[in-house]
């Protein structure tokens, strides 16, 4: 993968990824489009926000509407009209979430569809084929995400299976020439909370030589300090000339902590999910718009709000939310994604200017001064 490292500030990095559908400047936050859309938002609004890359969900798109249908529409880009880069996950995390409905074997994972209960089988090879049909710029390898907590014996067996599946993914990618269109493939470091397993996983994946590397199995219920340790125990063993992605993270302070540890890419459903429950991110921490304190507040959600949202008062958005008006969910989702995308843009600028430590400290001090993160 053409990845240019442009600046470092300590271990924090600023770089540029060159992908088939455009360039992505890192550090980057990637909005999540599970079903082929970022909930409540139009693709043009994502462009207005400055989103450079979004996620698609292999499991959900495979089940509905089906990867063959999407391929017949020219791939996920044409199907959704989003013409900038797309990263697709492998389906492994969704299979993990179906713990009561699935059986893990050497071949792959057998499970029952959450839609109709039909038996399904997802294998490393099929995951690669589905993602190729979707036409994503970055495809993730199929892996097993171990639960938290789990003992070291289980974590080791799970990791060994993930490595074997990674080898099968690699063989299939090569044999079917799945990188021919410029598609990139990322390995996923596993190992739960065990430092030696995280190092082992990173080293084994690097030997297989993928285009980039992710740290998976984080944000699955473990304490925050364990999440940070998982990154600390993996990132030092990943190549400096390839992108690093922390999957499914996190709160704004967590993202800044991960950037300081050398991570380049992030995704999380939190900005849009909590928006649908009435929570907005601000520089002074998250607020609940439905709370009575905002009933007569004529101020915008945040001094850093996008102009599309800052024109509206907290009082008006509260009224919309309490009345069940869709506009409130759209405004809050737009605002929260703007907050996250601005955070990583500002972090990149601070890295380039050599002021990242000061930027991080100032942001977190203000953000956490008066209230608890969501």
Give an overview of the whole structure.
- This protein folds into 2 domains: 3-268, Alpha-Beta Barrel (TIM Barrel), CATH 3.20.20.105; 275-368, no CATH class.
- It is built from 15 helices and 17 strands.
- The chain has helices spanning 43-49, 58-63, 67-72, 76-80, 92-97, 124-134, 152-175, 195-208, 224-232, 252-260, 270-275, 307-310, 314-322, 326-353, 356-368; strands spanning 3-9, 12-19, 22-26, 28-30, 32-33, 54-56, 86-88, 102-104, 109-112, 119-122, 138-140, 184-189, 212-215, 244-246, 265-267, 279-280, 287-288.
- The strands form 4 sheets. Strands 4-15-14-13-12-11-7-6-5 form a 9-stranded parallel β-sheet. A 3-stranded antiparallel β-sheet has the order 1-2-3.
- Helix 10 (252-260) runs parallel beside helix 14 (326-353).
- It is globular and about 60 Å long.
Mean pLDDT: 95
Number of separate structural domains: 2
Order of strands across the biggest sheet? 4-15-14-13-12-11-7-6-5
Instruction: Give the strand content.
Output: 15-25%
Radius of gyration: 20 Å
Distance N to C terminus: 35 Å
The parts where pLDDT drops under 50 for at least 5 residues are none
Q: What's the CATH first level of the largest domain?
A: Alpha Beta
Structural class of the secondary structure composition? Answer: alpha/beta
């Amino acid at each position: 993968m053409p990845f240019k490292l442009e600046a470092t500030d300590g271990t924090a990095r600023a770089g540029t990824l060159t992908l088939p559908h455009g360039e992505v400047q890192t550090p980057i936050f990637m909005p999540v489009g599970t079903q082929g859309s970022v909930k409540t938002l139009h693709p043009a609004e994502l462009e207005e926000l400055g989103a450079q890359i979004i996620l698609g969900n292999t499991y959900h798109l495979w089940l509905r509407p089906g990867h063959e249908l999407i391929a017949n529409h020219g791939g996920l880009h044409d199907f959704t009209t989003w013409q900038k880069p797309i990263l697709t996950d492998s389906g492994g995390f969704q299979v993990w979430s179906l713990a009561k409905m699935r059986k893990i074997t050497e071949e792959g994972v057998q499970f029952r569809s959450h839609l109709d209960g039909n038996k399904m089988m997802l294998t490393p090879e099929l995951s690669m084929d589905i993602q190729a049909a979707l036409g994503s710029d970055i495809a993730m390898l199929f892996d097993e995400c171990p639960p938290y907590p789990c003992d070291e014996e289980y974590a080791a067996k799970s990791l060994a299976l993930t490595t074997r599946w990674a080898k099968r993914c690699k063989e299939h990618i090569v044999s079917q020439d799945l990188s021919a269109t410029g598609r990139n493939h990322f390995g996923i470091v596993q190992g739960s909370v065990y430092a030696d397993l995280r190092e082992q996983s990173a080293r084994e994946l690097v030997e297989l030589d993928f285009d980039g590397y992710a740290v998976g199995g984080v944000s699955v219920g473990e304490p925050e300090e364990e999440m940070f340790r998982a990154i600390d125990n993996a990132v030092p063993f990943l190549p400096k000339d390839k992108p690093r992605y922390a999957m499914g993270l996190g709160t704004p302070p967590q993202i800044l902590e991960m950037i300081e540890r050398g991570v380049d890419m992030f995704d999380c459903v939190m900005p849009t999910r909590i928006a649908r429950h009435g929570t907005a991110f601000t520089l002074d921490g998250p607020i609940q718009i439905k709370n009575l304190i905002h009933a007569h507040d004529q101020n915008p959600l945040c001094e850093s709000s996008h102009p599309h949202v800052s024109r509206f008062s907290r009082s008006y958005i509260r009224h919309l939310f309490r009345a069940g008006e869709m506009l409130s969910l759209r405004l809050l989702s737009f605002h929260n994604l703007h907050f996250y995308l601005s955070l990583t843009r500002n972090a990149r600028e601070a890295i380039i200017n050599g002021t990242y430590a000061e930027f991080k400290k100032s942001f977190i001090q203000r953000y956490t001064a008066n209230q608890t993160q969501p």
